[in-house]
UniProtKB/TrEMBL annotation:
Recorded family membership: Belongs to the iron/manganese superoxide dismutase family.
InterPro entries in the cross-refs: Mn/Fe_SOD, Mn/Fe_SOD_BS, Mn/Fe_SOD_C, Mn/Fe_SOD_N, Mn/Fe_SOD_N_sf, SOD_C_sf
Gene3D superfamilies: Fe,Mn superoxide dismutase (SOD) domain, Iron/manganese superoxide dismutase, C-terminal domain
Biological source species: Poseidonibacter parvus
Protein name: Superoxide dismutase
Key word Iron present: yes
Length: 191
């Protein structure tokens, strides 16, 4: 099975001015594409060749794992953004309030963890096996899928996600991120 770069659910300039076309050209068009290309190269003629991304993530390590997880993490990240932000669906809002006390508390805690993630990585809203919501961070290519946690929302905090637009100001990037979250996508991921 050949893995392909996902098609963005919006045009490359649709997230401007919060996320520039130039950022998408580099982040999606170069970084994400490179992970896809490298994964295909690494799995050719191996036991991973015909597996899904999730199957590869759960059974591999090293370069194969890193590239498969980065493809999956980026696919999830792009789907979690939208130029047409809507209100938080009431079901999701209820779950956030139940878990964090309020939507604002959730955003505050998520932002703090995203900003506090040392080095490259990801901030996630996940659902555990008991359907409880949690905020976690992962380093490098790590993903909640490895821990049988269900991802609901992710923020990429690798520098290539924001350096062109806000340089090294991760807090400014998080401010913009909240204005782009696709709450309908997050809600669809809830069990």
């Amino acid at each position: 099975m050949k893995h392909v770069l996902m098609t963005l659910p919006y045009t490359s300039d649709a997230l401007e001015p919060l996320m520039s076309k130039e950022t998408l050209e580099f982040h999606y068009g170069k970084h994400h594409q490179t992970y896809v290309n490298k994964l295909n190269e690494l799995i050719e003629n191996t036991k991973y060749e015909n597996l899904s991304l999730n199957e590869i993530i759960k059974t591999s390590e090293g370069g194969v794992f890193n590239n498969a997880a980065q493809v999956s993490n980026h696919d999830f990240f792009w789907n979690g953004l939208t130029p047409n932000q809507t209100n938080i669906p009431s079901n999701l809002e209820d779950e956030l309030v139940k878990a964090f006390g309020s939507v604002e508390e959730f955003k505050k805690e998520f932002t703090a963890k995203a900003i506090g993630q040392f080095g490259s990585g990801w901030a996630w809203l996940v659902q555990d096996e008991n359907k409880n919501l949690k905020i976690i961070t992962t380093s490098n290519a790590q993903t909640p899928i490895q821990s049988d946690l269900k991802p609901l929302l992710v923020c990429d905090v690798w520098e290539h996600a924001y350096y062109i637009d806000v340089r090294n100001a991760r807090p400014a990037y998080l401010e913009n991120f909240w204005k782009l979250v696709n709450w309908n996508f997050v809600e669809k991921n809830l069990d």
